[in-house]
Structures are given as structure tokens and as C-alpha cells.
Amino acid sequence: MPQLNPHPWFFIMVISWFTYSMIIQPKLLSFITANPPSNKMYTIPNTTPWTWPWT
Questions:
Q1: How many Å apart are CA 17 and CA 14, to the nearest integer?
Q2: Which parts of the chain are coiled coil (predicted)?
Q3: Would you say the pTM of this structure is higher than 0.85?
Q4: What's the per-residue H, E or C state across 2-51?
Q5: According to the model, what pLDDT value does residue 3 have?
């Protein structure tokens, strides 16, 4: 069964992870997000409990 031979596939996996880690990932992380997170304080809404008619 040739799929159990790790010789060609292991090398392809190592090269692809190296390419992703060293070349593609820094380019993707260098982009500035269009919608940066804000420091807005969120208020908890004042809710009243629901009164069920059958209880």
C-alpha cells in the first residue's frame, strides 16, 4: 500500500508548513484590520423576568 510510505508525503508536509510559517503567515499578520476593536463599555440591559401564565 503506497499511502503508508511516509517518504514523499512527509517532505511535502514539512515544506508546506515551512512555507506557511515563514512566508505566508507574516504577510497575513501584517494587515491592519478595517474594524479595530473599541474600548466601549457595554451596559447590562435591565430585564424583568417573564411571568408564565401556567405556573
A1: 5
A2: none
A3: no
A4: HHHCHHHHHHHHHHHHHHHHHHHHHHHHCCCCCCCCCCCCCCCCCCCCCC
A5: 66
